[in-house]
């Protein structure tokens, strides 16, 4: 599976487990909602900075997003 798809599915799964909307995660991570949407769909290439922000906002480690 493509790394973009893996990251997207993990972000989506964890976001739903935490009962967060894309809008709320966007606010917490300081990433746009459009970026999050593309990331969850596997269309965006996540950067180290965006992975770090998402991990912090979701309360997980970066490795949880990429594995």
**What would you say the CATH architecture is?**
Orthogonal Bundle
Weakly predicted, low-confidence segments: none
Estimated share of beta-strand residues: under 5%
CATH superfamily: lambda repressor-like DNA-binding domains
Query: What is the distance, rounded to the nearest whole angstrom, between the alpha carbons of the first and last residues?
Result: 11 Å
Order of helices and strands: HHHHH
Shape: globular
Structural class: mainly alpha
Q: Give the count of helical stretches.
A: 5
* CATH fold type: 434 Repressor (Amino-terminal Domain)
Global Rg? 10 Å
CATH class membership: Mainly Alpha
Q: What is the average of the pLDDT values? A: 97
Major beta sheet, specifics? Answer: none
Measured as a percent range, the helix fraction is over 70%
How many individual domains? Answer: 1
What's the count of strands? 0
Protein name: Helix-turn-helix transcriptional regulator
Organism: Agrobacterium tumefaciens
Domain HTH cro/C1-type: 11-65
GO molecular function, one term: DNA binding
């Amino acid at each position: 599976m493509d790394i973009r798809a893996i990251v997207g599915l993990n972000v989506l799964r964890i976001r739903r487990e935490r009962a967060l909307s894309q809008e709320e995660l966007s606010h917490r991570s300081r990433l746009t909602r459009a970026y999050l949407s593309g990331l969850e769909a596997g269309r965006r290439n996540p950067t180290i900075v965006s992975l770090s922000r998402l991990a912090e906002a979701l309360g997980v480690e970066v490795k949880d997003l990429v594995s």
